[in-house]
Design a protein that fits this description.
178 residues, ribonucleoprotein, 50s Ribosomal Protein L5, Chain: A, rRNA binding, Ribosomal_uL5, Ribosomal_uL5_bac-type
């Protein structure tokens, strides 16, 4: 069992139970999954862009991403239906906790001019953030990076409100701005 999972079971659950005074232990929110997605618009012009992004996302997530395809054709964007436009990985279980630990303790301090993430959740108990550059991850070899590639990271929890989600992620080590 990872350190973050042990910390959740031992300390975070008790702190959440005390703060929100739940009637049942099953009401305590938990982290369900982490979704990492990349939009690879360059793939329309450069065929190698999708392979490069797939390789980097595999390195930093620990599993193979799925390819996202366009649902509709949009002529202004020169986009056709079923064209490959992005990648997505859904992390659960041990990989999820390992990624969360690396993200909060190693990656976040490496972000330039980092003062913490915004305290705004989506209203349903989930938290999303965007990164401009994949080079903050130590797994990515800087010599092999050909283009800067941003990504979205979504933390899906079982929390019912934003305050529960915020408190859960804060107790699990997510650095928020003051």
């Amino acid at each position: 069992m990872s350190e973050l999972k042990k910390n959740y079971e031992k300390d975070v659950k008790d702190a959440l139970m005390k703060k929100f005074s739940y009637e049942n232990k099953m009401q305590i929110p938990a982290l369900k999954k982490i979704i990492i997605s990349m939009g690879v618009g360059e793939a329309l012009k450069d065929k190698n862009a999708m392979q490069d992004a797939m390789k980097e996302l595999t390195l930093l997530s620990g599993q193979k991403p799925i390819i996202m395809k366009a649902k509709n054709s949009i002529s202004n964007f020169k986009l056709r239906e079923e064209q490959e436009i992005g990648l997505k990985v859904t992390l659960r279980g041990k990989r999820m906790y390992d990624f969360m630990y690396r993200f909060t303790n190693i990656v976040s301090p490496r972000i330039r001019d980092f003062r913490g993430f915004r305290k705004k959740c989506d209203g349903r108990g989930n938290y999303s953030l965007g990164l401009d550059d994949q080079q903050v991850f130590p797994e990515v070899n800087l010599d092999e990076v050909k283009r800067d590639q941003g990504m979205n990271v979504t933390f899906v929890t079982s929390a019912q409100t934003d305050s529960e989600c915020f408190e859960l992620l804060k107790l699990m080590g997510m650095p928020y701005e003051r």
